[in-house]
Please model this.
Amino acid sequence: MKRLIIAGFGQPLLDLFEFLSVRFEIVGVILDYERKNKHPWFHEALAKKSIKVFNFDAVDALKPDAIVVFNYNRIIDVQYKTVPILNIHIGLLPVYRGNNANAWSILNGDRSVGYTLHEVTDTLDGGAIYYKFAYEIKDHETYFHAKNAMTEDLKNELPWVIEKVLNQEIQGVNQDHDDFIYCSKLYPEDGILSHWDYNTAEIISRNMIFARPLGTGLKMHYQSKVIEISKLSVVPHYRISKGFPGAVVMKNESGSVWIKTKDTAISIDVLYIDGQIVLPSTLFKIGDRL
Model:
């Protein structure tokens, strides 16, 4: 049985420990930061499971067959690379490197998201690719559905893949000459619509990213308050047209309202205000400018 060290932090690290323990001896973990005061539950979980904590200086003495990295938020100095280091990148390489890569994919109109297993080199997320899992987010879904699919694949497929990589049954695919972008971290305030001068597809994409339960919710400004849009949808057959983004152009018996966007219009179906479900038609009338 091959021996691994896992580097990372938080629930993703604990989940990976469980997934890989089926096929590997897990020697211990390397944490990106201590952060005991901020995340005591995590350190309590490590202690409860008797998971040993090391640093990169201990790698040579421990002699693992590889280090597997997941949710590790520091640059790894490749001088420590005396054994293979494999990173689980949440995003599809070679295009989307960096933080929140799947969210950037959605923002760019690409609903194919997933994760990539690749070699760690001195180029961030630029090492040879060993495996990719992709999930196509459907019209009625959000990133929550993709996250569940990725978790299932991490559990059921990744241990086999890593074993094949270490046995040299899978060869890495070089990405040195591929086009790419680097993605930056997203923040909850990025999910607040400060205006409506976006294409409808852009608003739908933001909702896919920020919708609960994974996100903090897609939100909008209204009368000096920030309120949550808990349900929205595309207006079928609405023609591409100019107009005044933010204008309320229609109220419906269902309680939804249609708001003009940069190109078409979008249906705001349900709002969530001060812990209560609110129908938009009770707040807005045709002609209002939001």
User: Anything to note?
Assistant: The chain has seven helices and 16 strands.
